[in-house]
Write a structure and sequence with these properties.
With 456 residues, the protein is an all-alpha fold. The chain contains 19 helices and no strands.
């Protein structure tokens, strides 16, 4: 393995930096994606209680915030782009860091981009079918086509100038936040309240301790995933010691304050049996809140709003691929930048994987695969906060995790509980995840062998 950290750090000084506002919008955009507009239908199948669902989203928010606070400490200590790849390399060993980077490359951003693009295509094609612009026979084909076109357009935007990327990201993130606020406010004002039990009951409380609740956390944590987004572009953030932890904290808080009430309004306004097993819960709820015409408009806006999620992950993901290319001799082509100092090769590689997933995968299969694999990576990273407190007591910590040692423990308990039930209830999904990691290990040792041979 060939390290070029000094030259990398010098190059990073020439990169146009982004401010706190853009870093926050990146976190918010990464988090507010497909999950909030698609998850409820899968959760209601096993948890038909208002209180239980709200508790689920609050618990997921607390876990995400605990993770964000923990990453804030790591990000202030290790200020290079790459997220878990860079953190785990410093905490444990380059091998662990590489495996995490491999997960990010294959799963971390490609799969969520594919899921967001598929969801955008589903919302758009559903509207086209409902307005009789499209036959239901062609809905699946149209959905995939929309997903592919969106992915390619956004990838093209992200090989341009940093200023244009920031403007694009901020605009679509603002639009998406406005959309959710409209759904929340008008949902409670205009919709007819459903006949449901809002206060906790014996059944709704006991449901919290079931396997269905634990498995449902997969969808919630997927919806909250992205709370660590700005850690992937640390080198591009102005004053990362201060702004990185702040962006993680404030971005996550904003999303919690949007997620809990929007899911409450979905259940308040829409019959549960209409949403069970459905992916387009936002569109279904919008029809009950605004009527058919208003629902169609909101369905299109939700589809447009998902552009922000695709864009934010197209921004963050290639930075992981880039730093892997900078660190590993046999993969150095991945670190190549264009004239705008953008990792264009990494963007093209990520986009190719995304297109393959869109063509070959279903939405639900992608979500479970993402949920286990990414959570395992972030679990080991947050555990690293405890490891460093013992192994590197004297290292400078510009920011220390608020609520330590409780906050990292909350994240580890919630995510550990979730992973246990995935292994128990969906062992095939866990096996796919471990297989992905095993392939990454093979790639690491092949690179190590080739690098040793070339230096002889």
């Amino acid at each position: 393995m060939s390290k070029n950290n000094n030259s990398v750090m010098n190059n990073e000084k020439n990169i146009k930096k982004i401010g706190l506002t853009t870093a926050i919008t990146l976190v918010v955009a990464n988090m507010i994606g497909t999950g909030v507009f698609t998850s409820l239908g899968f959760q209601l199948a096993g948890l038909p209680h208002f209180f239980t669902i709200v508790a689920l989203w609050i618990l997921g928010g607390i876990a995400a915030l605990s993770g964000a606070l923990s990453y804030g400490e790591l990000g202030s200590m290790f200020q290079r782009s790459g997220g878990e790849y860079h953190f785990l390399e410093k905490i444990y060993h380059p091998f662990v860091g590489f495996l995490s980077g491999w997960i990010s490359v294959i799963v971390g951003f490609t799969a969520p981009i594919a899921a967001a693009a598929i969801a955008a295509g589903k919302y758009s094609s559903r509207v086209m079918v409902d307005t009789q612009l499209l036959s239901v026979d062609y809905q699946e084909f149209t959905m995939k086509g929309i997903a592919i076109v969106l992915t390619l357009i956004i990838a093209f935007v992200h090989i341009g100038k940093m200023k244009n990327i920031s403007l694009f990201q901020n605009f679509f993130t603002g639009l998406k936040i406005l959309l959710i606020i409209i759904l929340i406010v008008f949902g409670f004002i205009l919709a007819n309240a459903q006949n449901i039990e809002y206060l906790p009951t014996k059944d709704s409380i006991s449901a919290i301790f079931t396997g269905a609740f634990a498995v449902s956390i997969v969808f919630v944590m997927y919806a909250y995933s992205g709370w660590n987004a700005s850690a992937y572009i640390s080198s591009e953030i102005d004053n990362p010691r201060k702004n990185l932890p702040l962006s993680l904290f404030l971005g996550t808080i904003i999303v919690i304050l949007l997620y809990v009430p929007v899911n409450a309004v979905f259940m308040y306004s829409t019959p549960a049996n209409e949403m069970i097993g459905q992916e387009e819960v936002g569109y279904i709820a919008a029809n009950y809140i605004f009527g058919k015409t208003g629902g169609i408009i909101m369905g299109l806006l939700i589809s447009i709003g998902l552009i922000s999620a695709i864009s934010s992950m197209t921004w963050a993901g290639p930075r992981v691929i880039q730093v892997i290319g900078e660190d590993y001799k046999t993969l150095k082509f991945l670190g190549k930048k264009n004239k705008n100092e953008i990792p264009a090769v990494a963007i093209f590689m990520q986009t190719a994987i995304v297109l393959f997933m869109i063509i070959t995968s279903t939405f639900e299969a992608i979500i479970y695969y993402i949920g286990f694999t990414l959570t395992l990576s972030s679990f080991i990273t947050v555990l690293g906060v405890y490891v460093l407190r013992f192994t590197k007591k004297n290292i400078e910590r510009p920011y220390k995790t608020f609520g330590y040692p409780i906050t990292p423990a909350i994240f580890l308990i919630v995510t550990g509980w979730m992973m246990f039930f995935i292994v128990k209830d969906k062992p095939v999904t866990a096996l796919y995840s471990f297989a992905t990691i095993a392939v990454g290990a093979v790639v690491y040792f092949i690179n190590k062998f080739v690098s040793k041979k070339s230096t002889k």
